[in-house]
Every structure is written in C-alpha cells, then in structure tokens.
Write a structure and sequence with these properties.
The protein is mainly alpha-helical. It is 51% helix and 0% strand. The chain has one domain. The model has no long low-confidence stretch (mean pLDDT 91).
C-alpha cells in the first residue's frame, strides 16, 4: 500500500515514511493549482480547476465559488 492509499484508508503516516516526499510534492502542486483556482473568472473555469486538483471530473451541476480554501 502506497502513501496515498494509506492516507485514504485513514492510516497514520510517520515522519520517516519513505514516500513522504511524494506528499510534499503533491502539496506544492496543489498550492499552485489553488492560486489558479482562486483567480478563476467563471464557474466553468472554477469547476475545471477543482477537477485538476482532485483528479476527477466535477459534474456540470456543481457550482463552487471562489475564493476556495482547503487543508489538504
């Protein structure tokens, strides 16, 4: 089970986990994508940016307003 599978399963991640660098890479990427998300100028663009962040398509019926804040 990799780091992200452990996280999704609710497992504790020790500070010396061998894949911890992958978490920090994902955090850095998400911070950059969040900045783009919060500069979105339409609902469609906001939906697309959220989809990029979570890796899944957001249904067209979903409306998310910016600014959007989250804690990984």
């Amino acid at each position: 089970m990799d780091l992200f599978e452990q996280m999704l399963a609710g497992g504790l991640i020790p500070n010396d986990h061998p894949q911890l660098n992958l978490l920090w890479e994902a955090v850095a990427e998400t911070i950059q994508r969040s900045a783009l998300l919060n500069s979105s100028t339409s609902v469609a663009e906001t939906r697309n940016r959220i989809s990029e962040i979570i890796g899944k398509e957001i249904d067209q019926s979903t409306t998310i307003f910016v600014p959007f804040h989250t804690n990984f």
